[in-house]
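User: Design a sequence. Structure:
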């Protein structure tokens, strides 16, 4: 493939975003991969690839791409908001500690930085939230729908899980989140 101009890369990126929005993640990944072969230092492309892998429950791959994105743009809150859940699902303490170091050096506002660090430190220190008897696959599906901004689907899934688990704070929080986002 001949080198692409900046405008061609922008056009291809927009095309990949469109495909990703339509759920055609494999085609979007192919375009993102071509872009990254030519220009591997575009944080936005790594961010989108990380999102695709996260929704596919391929956490080590999502962490890899989110890590590059956050290294390139350590002050981007949107990247941190999706990178942290990926790190917590991947359970790689080395990657979590590395992320905390990057976060501490970033210009993310103090309040947000402390919230993010606390989330990461809870896992790095060995604590975690127990999901008990909840269906992990159902929880991942809800989280994936939220991350994909398909709040209607997330709401339907969360309602179904809530009806089976009326006393679960995790399910209640996810259901509330879908209502807030919708």
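Assistant: Done.
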């Amino acid at each position: 493939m001949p080198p692409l101009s900046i405008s061609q890369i922008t056009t291809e990126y927009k095309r990949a975003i469109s495909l990703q929005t339509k759920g055609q993640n494999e085609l979007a990944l192919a375009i993102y991969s071509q872009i990254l072969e030519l220009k591997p230092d575009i944080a936005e492309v790594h961010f989108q690839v990380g999102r695709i892998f996260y929704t596919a429950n391929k956490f080590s791959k999502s962490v890899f791409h989110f890590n590059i994105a956050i290294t390139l743009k350590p002050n981007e809150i949107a990247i941190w908001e999706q990178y942290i859940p990926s790190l917590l699902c991947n359970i790689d303490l080395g990657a979590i500690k590395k992320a905390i170091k990057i976060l501490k050096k970033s210009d993310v506002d103090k309040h947000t930085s402390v919230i993010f660090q606390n989330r990461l430190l809870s896992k790095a220190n060995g604590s975690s939230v127990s999901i008990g008897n909840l269906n992990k696959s159902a929880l991942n599906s809800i989280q994936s729908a939220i991350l994909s901004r398909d709040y209607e689907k997330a709401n339907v899934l969360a309602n179904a899980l809530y009806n089976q688990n009326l006393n679960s704070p995790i399910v209640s929080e996810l259901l509330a989140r879908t209502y807030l986002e919708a």
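The mean pLDDT is 86. Residues 136-181 form one domain.
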